[in-house]
């Protein structure tokens, strides 16, 4: 069964390896490196048809270096993922997904945190031109657009942040709420045409700030937004680094109970998490999740979770 995965951090791993290669070691081979949970061979083995690749800049980097870090990751997306793997096809607009051949895998570029462009909207427009199709305003920290879930102030969107959401709407780009503060989330609900939670679970089952409460979940569903379950054990079972596929499915069950059976997807966070669900350690093991889902849901419903729900809720549809 085809799988769409709306979040991974392979670009950061590729960048760290490249910078380290200046002093020791070699570049990671995106095709087959064991260090990459979403390498090309694992995507193939797991039936992944579309993989999202996040640009992520650590908040501790000096502000005047963040744009360079973002460009380095974009360059690696083009040079290491696309150019060296002809069956990886850049999804530059949402209709490109429909043009993928049976043996091709779509690659979507995303941004996790507006820190990369600061308050320079020319840089944001450049990211749109480079093919960024989903933008999360924050990671866990605060920036010039909004507060993240890790900032105790918990403020909403700034004037700049609201302008970014409007530009996302104009460019048919997702606004990702997965790391936003609660107040920021509600500001996005007022403004965004295309909201998504690219990698979040249910707070009612795991009381973690990165998860969404029931009111937020229902608001996402009423806005036709997708919520994509994340594989990080800490967001599945509270205060635990262990989780099973059954534990993850409990979150899917909860989303379904709130009316979202046609708006649930997958956002693994592979290459960005330090612990894993048993049996879901990398992209090659997606069939383990699909097989377990098929014990609880119809074939059509599982196909929806895997990819069809996304196809029906992508911008412009």
Structure in a nutshell:
The chain has 317 residues and is an alpha/beta fold. It has 10 helices and 9 strands. Strands 1, 2, 3, 4, 5, 6, 7, 8 and 9 form a 9-stranded parallel beta sheet that branches.
Classified by CATH, the class is Alpha Beta
Radius of gyration, whole Å: 18 Å
Oligomer: single chain
Overall shape: it is: globular
Fold-level CATH name: TIM Barrel
Proportion of residues in helical segments: 25-40%
Largest sheet: number of strands, sense, barrel closure: 9 strands, parallel
CATH superfamily: Metal-dependent hydrolases
Number of domains: 1
**How much of the sequence is in beta strands?**
5-15%
End-to-end span in angstroms? Answer: 22 Å
What's the β-strand tally? 9
Count up the helices: 10
By CATH, the architecture is named Alpha-Beta Barrel
Uncertain segments are none
Q: What's the average pLDDT? A: 97
Structural class: alpha/beta
- Write the element-wise H/E pattern from the N-terminal end onward: EHHEHEEHEHEHEHEHEHH
Organism: Planomicrobium stackebrandtii
Protein name: Membrane dipeptidase
GO molecular function, one term: dipeptidase activity
EC number: 3.4.13.19
